[in-house]
Write a structure and sequence with these properties.
This protein folds into 2 domains: about 10-155, 60s Ribosomal Protein L30, Chain: A, CATH 3.30.1330.10; about 170-345, PurM-like C-terminal domain (Phosphoribosyl-aminoimidazole Synthetase, Chain A, domain 2, Alpha-Beta Complex), CATH 3.90.650. The chain is built from 10 helices and 13 strands. It has helices spanning about 15-25, 75-90, 110-125, 180-195, 205-215, 220-230, 245-255, 270-280, 280-290, 305, and strands spanning about 35, 45, 50-60, 95-105, 130-140, 145-155, 170-175, 235-240, 255-260, 295-300, 315-320, 325-330, 335. The strands form 3 sheets. It has a 7-stranded mixed beta sheet, sandwiched between helices. The chain has a 4-stranded mixed beta sheet with strand order 3-6-4-5, covered by helices on one side. A two-stranded antiparallel sheet has the order 1-2. Helix 2 packs parallel to helix 3. The structure holds adenosine-5'-diphosphate and magnesium ion (MG). The site of adenosine-5'-diphosphate has 13 residues, from helix 1, strand 4 and strand 5.
């Protein structure tokens, strides 16, 4: 997985910018009726008949957000799409289109960009979205990918960070901390590989956490499930920077406080065992690890019967008034203030 798989190397200059764009985008098909014109003109044309439009952008920079020594380009393309869709779903919206802009140095052959676009196409098919445009330019060294995602939501269904009320329940989808522990394993194997390139990494027993790092999913299914259950969250956010900092965003935007229960935080057994192996506290990992792309939301108490038996959801706390502050209630039943030690892109 660490070795360079690009045996064939076609110089990007051989195609020229327009040839490259045509080559990379020729397989994209239009799936959404709201896409009137996709790639190929000066601008895409979209037509939405009702509701509101949500727009979100994320940029991924080589050396800051990803390391190509263990991130296959196909996975990177997939992840670049998924992290943006996650923000659309966090508004309780449906994702419909994306644009993809890349800055790439001549270090990358055509075959590398084909891999990247294969991942983008896989994500676009799976999430049923159209790639309707982008931009292609050169960079001096690394690779930069910027994705803009567009979605739609009926005006009464949009969910903001600001709607939570005291006594609402705090709920999270899936489990937390796996992507961070997957990264720890990949970083460790990279160091081993540097010392002895013949030493092939043994990643058995880490498959779930590595997949969570390299191939995260956006929780489109949770948005559909909430709709089926007729539960509209009072507030929602996706977990990109770590549970702690996302809880603080919900509290601050909603002007409330909250108690988070340590013993309720959902952890996969592989996260627990890998934390033991690395001698890291699993709660710290769940609170601050990030890149989980799970949905964190609040619901009013009357919605509890609709979500309580569902294995996709875990109630991890409840909201209080602003004066109560934001606390973690530990297993030892002590109350400690929540801190946002989340991974901060600007400090990296
Ligand atoms: P312009 O010069 O008018 O900006 P471009 O030649 O950059 O047009 O782009 C031509 C078409 O290809 C446009 O529809 C644009 O959105 C699309 N496009 C350019 N780069 C990419 C890319 N990396 N991925 C997807 N679509 C792209
Ligand atoms: Mg352009």
């Amino acid at each position: 997985m660490i070795e360079d798989k690009n045996q064939n190397k076609t110089d990007l200059a051989a195609l020229g910018e327009f040839g490259l764009i045509d080559h990379l985008t020729k397989n994209f098909t239009i799936k959404q009726t709201s896409t009137i014109k996709g790639i190929g003109d000066d601008a895409a044309v979209l037509e939405f008949n009702k509701g509101q439009i949500v727009v979100t952008t994320d940029m991924l920079v080589e050396g800051v957000h990803f390391d190509l020594s263990y991130m296959p380009l196909k996975h990177l393309g997939y992840k670049a799409i998924v992290v943006n869709l996650s923000d659309v779903y966090a508004m309780n919206a449906q994702a419909t289109q994306v644009t993809v802009s890349i800055a790439v140095s001549n270090r990358f052959p055509l075959e590398a960009l084909e891999e990247l676009y294969a991942g983008i196409e896989t994500a676009a098919s799976l999430y049923n979205i159209d790639v309707v445009g982008g931009d292609t330019t050169s960079s001096t060294t690394g690779l930069i990918i910027s994705v803009t995602a567009i979605g739609t939501v009926d005006s009464e269904n949009a969910v903001y960070r600001s709607g939570a009320k005291p006594n609402d329940l705090l709920v999270v989808s899936g489990d937390l901390g796996a992507a961070y522990m997957g990264l720890q394993v990949l970083e460790r194997e990279k160091e081993v590989f540097k010392v002895n390139p013949n030493n092939q990494p043994d990643l058995d027993g880490y498959t779930y956490i590595i997949e969570r790092q390299l191939k995260p999913e956006a929780r489109k299914d949770i948005i559909e499930l909430l709709k089926d259950l007729e539960v509209k969250p009072t507030s929602m956010i996706d977990i990109s920077d770590g549970l702690s900092s996302e809880i603080m965003h919900l509290c601050k935007h909603s002007n409330i406080g909250c108690d988070l229960y340590e013993d309720k935080i959902p952890l996969d057994p592989q996260v627990i065992s890998t934390c033991e192996e690395f001698n890291i506290d699993s709660t710290t990992v769940a609170l601050n690890g990030g890149e989980d792309y799970e949905l964190l939301f609040t619901v009013s108490q009357e919605d509890f019967p609709n979500i309580k038996a569902n294995p996709n959801f875990t109630v991890i706390g409840f909201m209080k008034d602003e004066a109560s502050g934001m606390h973690l209630i530990t297993r030892a039943e002590t109350s400690i203030p929540l801190k946002a030690q989340g991974w901060n892109a600007l400090n990296n």
